[in-house]
Amino acid sequence: MKYWYIYPLLSIFVVAMASIAYFGYYRAPDGTTESTDSKIASVEIPSNDYTKNDPNNESVEEKKPSPSEKSPGQKSAKSIYSLGNSLTFGTGSGGDDYTDRLISLLGSNWSVENHGIAGNTTAQMLARVDSKSDYTIVWGGINDVYRGIPTSTTTENLANIYDTVHKLKGKVIALNITPSKGDPNWSTEKQDATEYLNDWIFSSSADYKIDVYTAVEDPNSPGRILPLYDAGDHLHLQQDGYYAVADRIYNLLKEIESL
Question: Is the distance from CB of 139 to CB of 118 less than 8 angstroms?
Fold first, then answer.
C-alpha cells in the first residue's frame, strides 16, 4: 500500500492520547505540571468556609460574615447613657466633653449618649432618667450642694436613680463630686457636704464607682481643681479636665470588658 507508514504513526498518537486521559495532567506553557480539572475544582466553595480569592479565577469570592454573624474575636456593640448636669454637658470645655473623649477611646463599636443638662439637681436627673443602655454613668450632686439641698435628699435621689437603671437591666457607673474650692459661693459647709456625699457614693448600690474628685484635684491645694483642668470658675473643667475624667472611665471599662 502507498501510505502503509500512516498506521504505525496513528497507533502511536492513540496511545499518547490515552496516556494523557489516564494520568490526567498536561504540561503548562511555563513547564509546570497542572491538573486538568483544577480550574473546575477551584470554583466549588464550601458553604461554611471562608475561602480566599483565587487569583486565577475571579468568580471565586471570599465569604463575608452576614450582619447576624461575628468575625472571630469581634465583640457585640455596647452602649453608654451619660446622665448628669453641666459637668456631663461639658460646660467650660471649649472643645470636647468627657463623652466625646470616651467615643474616641472606645471606638465605633460603642455608642455613647450625652444626657447632661446644665443646672440639673439629682431630683431633676431622677425625673428624666430613661436608660436602656448597657452602662449608665451617673454624675450628679454638685448643684444640690450649692443650693443647700439636704444630703439625705440627694442620697435618696441618687439611690432611686441607681435602682431605676437596675430595673432597666443596666449597670451603674457612679462618679463622685469634683472639687470646687475657689468658687465665690464655696464654704466649709459645702465642702463637708461634698465629702459626705462622696463617701456615700462609694458605699452605694452603684455597680462601679470612680473617684474623679482626686483625678482633677490639685495635690498642692486640696479641695481645688488643678489649674491645668480648671475652666476658670473653679467649678467646671476645661477640655483636659474632662479628658482626665474620661480616661478613668475608660480604664474601668477596659478592665471589666477586657478591651
Answer: no
